[in-house]
Amino acid sequence: MAGKGGLTKLDVGVLSAEQQEKLREFKIKTRIDNERYLRSHPEVEILIGNFLRDVLLERPTDIQEFAAEHFTNPNLQVVISSKMDRKIGTE
Question: Whole-prediction pTM value?
């Protein structure tokens, strides 16, 4: 079944019970690993939040171009570091 964007919806019913259990365990492990990574890198939340805030404020017509400009801004590291310092100062 083709989904939005050409992605195919997976039919896990074709997997054996053992395969389904391994898939379930893999998904859980992946979520835990992702959570650990994000907790050890709080700057990711600030990067994404800053980007979304700017998108919603500016509402660009070409989101890909806007994202490219946003994430290649030479001052981005300074902006994020400043926000990190403020966040750490409020905790």
Answer: 0.66
Question: What mean pLDDT is predicted for residues 73-85?
Answer: 90
SS3 88: helix
DSSP 14-76: GS-HHHHHHHHHHHHHHHHHHHHHHHH-THHHHHHHHHHHHHHHH--S-HHHHHHHHHT-TTH
H or E segment and range at residue 9: none
- Tens of pLDDT, residue by residue over 38-76, are 999 989 999 999 999 999 999 999 999 999 999 999 999
Q: Which amino acid is at 2?
A: A
How far does the chain reach from its first CA to its final CA, in angstroms? Answer: 48
